Amino acid sequence: MPLRFIHASDLHIGRKFANIPQPEDGNIRGRLMEARHGAITRLAKAARDRGAAHILLAGDTFDTATPSPVVIRQALAAMAEDAGVTWWLLPGNHDNLRDAEPLWEVIRRDAPANVIALTEAEPQPLGDGATLLPSPVAFRAGASDPTEPLVNMASDEGRLRIGLAHGGVTDFTGAGDAIAPDRDRSARLDYLALGDWHGRLQVSDRVHYCGSPEQDRFKHGRRGVCLAVTLDGPGAVPQIAEVETGAFLWTEQPLTLHPRQHAGRALAEALPEGSRRDILLRMRAGGWAGLADQADLTRAARDIAPDFAHFELLTDALGTQYDAGDLDEIDRAGALRLAADALQQEAQSETLSEAERQVAGDALARLYAYVREDAQ
To answer: Buried (b) or exposed (e) across 277-296, using 16+ Cβ within 10 A?
Structure first.
């Protein structure tokens, strides 16, 4: 019989999203936290729909080593709701064995029968014809390939070998802890389920990152997924299907402007379709725009922002085209005109740094917008 299971990772349950501004009349942080908890139910549904009896969580199930008792108990209770699905929880770098020792003690003590904490690097039977080979993370930052123990883990002849680990195939820190991209061959694995990278990535036919089932950053531009994996037998190429599980879409989009363009209309045309209430959008403006166009863009962004779960307009890459008529709108003489002239000179100065010119340009654009709003 084929082996079917769900590969997921990086739920980061309990994350507080302090980097997302909390509007006075909204609760986006609470909604994002709830979506992470809700991913448990969506993963269980993916397992039922695909005929999978196991869900492999490749690390960072919890966002910190010390989640609150409420977060732990509610997560375990959600996993217990479908007794026909077994959850396999691997410690990752956020909930590693050393820092999160009390957490794993609680899970081993209180977890329902269908939740198994993989706190030892020891083979585990995964159904009748497969062996799960876990490599739990002992420390938040390691100095070796976390999948090395898989090479020497034994399994009976004829059984599928499924590796489960947490870490990167690229070493960004220089610590030497990158995962060998050919670990499936050296450890004789039929499949290596990896966690740590929050985006979907196929390293090879047998080595996959599933990404987070509920995204938490603008980098990947798509809703979170899990992987439904089918293995027909030892040596067979895995069959992989992506199953969308994300409630929120985090996306960053460019907005390239040119002079005398209606900036507000350009912004409206660039906005994504769909339920904006569940979209976190970062719009990165570039190109060139006059002061009037920038004021229109800022107003349009302010008007559209409440439609979205979160909206940011970034203008640091947007150049300003200066026009004498724009400065006249600020003031033809007097203190405001003197200030506007000084800011324009600084914004165009060749002796100031790019950052200083940017600050002066932003200040001039804000001054223009304030004066224009007062006039209206």
So the answer is: eebbbebbbebebbbbbbbb
